[in-house]
Structures are given as structure tokens and as C-alpha cells.
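Long-time lurker. I teach an intro course on protein structure, and each term I like to show students one example going from raw sequence to a predicted 3D structure in C-alpha cell notation. This year I'd like something fresh instead of my usual example. Would anyone be willing to generate the C-alpha cells for the chain below so I can use it in lecture? Attribution to the forum is fine with me.
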Amino acid sequence: MRHIRLLAATGTAVTALALTACGTAGGTRDEGASRPTTPAASAEKAASGKAAAETSQAATGGRTGNGRPVARTHAPDARPSASPTARGTRTGTAGGSVVLCNGANTTVTAQPLARPLNHLLITVKNTGGKTCELPYYPVLRFDQMQWVPQADRDTQPQAVVSLAPGESGYAGVLLSSADGSGTGGMTARKLTVGFQGLTPNSSGGPSATPSLPAKGVYYDSSLKVTYWQQDLDAIAGW
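-- Reply from a regular --
Happy to contribute to a lecture. Here you go:
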């Protein structure tokens, strides 16, 4: 009888241990375990890191992760520096400032040419004490003409004409077409020669009024001029 009670007690203990083990396996939670990372979260994190890297590279002019260059965008006020000519200052070969040639420091003559026909030669001589420059081309006005003759761009020199004291510069004028194709022809008895500044169509100073022949000169809509030239030979056949 005592043996039977011992076996029963043992069986009860085994059953209790089994129940306890089952409770631990099914009801215990591991708080220290990390949660798995979802694909969406990984993609979001990677995109955020890439954007930060590209922002840093853009600030330094670097490259993105795929090798494409990133332009600088943090200097909106950056502008190319102006050239000395654009600022209106130039330096001569002797280190002094160079002035513009105009009616105040030159003498200007206008001479009709026998060859080529219907042409006028304008000569500008530097009568001042400093080297002067002749930018672009002369701005001509016959009598009260309301339009400005255009320049032949094929005659534009490679450098600005520069005249030392006593030297001369030249420009040619086509007064009228040889084949009579020009229109609005008339005879002018007064010529005003304007000088340009360092930028196109700006004023270079006082104009000049060279004398014309007493009979005047005939011109029509074909009227055009050359750029200022250092050498007369440059427009001899124009």
C-alpha cells in the first residue's frame, strides 16, 4: 500500500513538471530580441542616406553615387569679372592710360576718291600729346540725315586702331551704288563724323565736321562705311 502511494506521488510530480514546462514554452516573451527589418524600411533608409550624400557632394562640386557630376548651386551672385575694355580703362605700352580719339584731339578730313568710284576717304590724325584709340567705325551723318550708315563687317580689324601722336587712321565710305540700285539719292553739303566709345554705339567724345567739296557729295541708300583702319592699304580696294 505504501508502494502504491509512492508511485502516485511520483506521477503527480512528473505531471506538474510537464505542465510547468509547457507554460514556460508557450507564455514566456523574449523582450531582448530585435524586430526584423522590412524591405520598405531598408529602402527608405538607403534613399535618405543617398540624398544626404548628394547634397554634400553638390556643395563641393563632387559627383553622385552613379558617377554623374553635381553642379554647384550655392553661389547665385557669381558673375564673370568684367574685362578692362568693358570697364572703360586701358593701359598703353608705356604704362599710361590711353584716351579715345575724337574731335577734341584729332583733325579729320573727308576726301572724295577718283578710284574706286563713289567713295569717300576719312582720315583722322592724332594731334594730341597722348596715344588715342579708334574703336569700331565712324558714325556718319550727312546734313540732317535721320539714319546711321551701317559698317561692312568684313573690314573689321583684329585689334583696335591705336594712334600715337602724329599718326593717322582711316575709314572708307561707299556713297552710292555703281549700278544705280540705290534709292533716295541726294546731295549733301555737310558731314558730321561721330566717334564711338569702348562699347558699341556709346559716345567717344566730341564729333568732327570735316569740310566737303563746294558742290557737295551725292549719296543714296547704298551708303555704308568700313571699320577704322590702322593702314590705308587695308581698304585700298574696298
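Some talking points for your students: The chain has two helices and twelve strands. Residues 1-43, 50-89 have pLDDT under 50 and may be disordered.
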